[in-house]
Amino acid sequence: MKPIYHDVVISFGDTLAQQADFAELTQFYDQAQVSHWLAHLLTYLQAQPNAWVHDDLLALDLPYELSLYITEPIEARALNLAYRGKDYATNILSYPADLPAEVAGQLPQVPLGELVICHAVVAKQAAEQGKPLAAHVTHLMVHGMLHLLGFDHELGQAEQDEMERIEIAVLADLGVANPYELP
C-alpha cells in the first residue's frame, strides 16, 4: 500500500484571529500535526480485525479530508444548543459527512466531516484536570475523529469502552498519556 497523505482544512473564528494570543493558539492546530494524528488513528483502525464502524470507508485506498474549525465559547454554545439541545459551550463537536463508501470511493478524497473545537473550553478543562494543554487537544482531536468515523460513546457502555480503548492506544502511540487516568 502506498503512503496516503490526508488533507486537513483549518479555519478560525473571526474573533479568535483578532486576539493578541492568536499566534500561540495556532500552534495547537497545525495542519501537518492534525494530519499526523488522523493518519495514526486510521492506521490503528485498519490494523484491527474488527474495526466495527465504517470498515467500508477504512478499506478505501484514498486520502481522507477533514475540516477543523476553532471557535470561541459563545459560538460553541450556540452550536451545541442548535445541534445537540445542550445549552453550554462544549469542548468539541463532530459533524460527520456520513457518505456511503460507494459514493466516497468515487471522490478524490474521502470527506470525513468537520470538527468544531472551542479552544477556551479545552484550555480550561486541561487546567482543571492538571493535564498538559497539548495532550488534551490531541486527545479531543482523536476523540472527535472517532465520532466522524461513526463511533458513538453515547450509545452505551460497550461503545464508550471501545472508544476509550482506541483513544488510549492511539494516544500512547503518539506519546500522550492515558487521558482517563488522573495525573
Automatic annotation (TrEMBL):
Functional summary from the UniProt entry: Single strand-specific metallo-endoribonuclease involved in late-stage 70S ribosome quality control and in maturation of the 3' terminus of the 16S rRNA.
Cofactor-binding details, from the entry: Binds 1 zinc ion.
Organism in which the protein naturally occurs: Faucicola atlantae
NCBIfam families: rRNA maturation RNase YbeY
Metal-binding is among the record's keywords: yes
PANTHER family xrefs: ENDORIBONUCLEASE YBEY, CHLOROPLASTIC
Enzyme class: hydrolase
Compartments, record wording: Cytoplasm
Molecular function in Gene Ontology: metalloendopeptidase activity; RNA endonuclease activity; zinc ion binding
A UniProt-annotated Pfam family: YbeY
Family statement drawn from the similarity comment of this UniProt entry: Belongs to the endoribonuclease YbeY family.
HAMAP family: Endoribonucl_YbeY
Record-listed E.C. numbers: 3.1.-.-
Keywords, in A-Z order: Cytoplasm, Endonuclease, Hydrolase, Metal-binding, Nuclease, Ribosome biogenesis, rRNA processing, Zinc
GO CC terms of this entry: cytoplasm
Names of required cofactors: Zn(2+)
Residues binding Zn(2+), per UniProt: 143, 147, 153
Main location: cytoplasm
Protein name: Endoribonuclease YbeY
GO biological process: rRNA processing
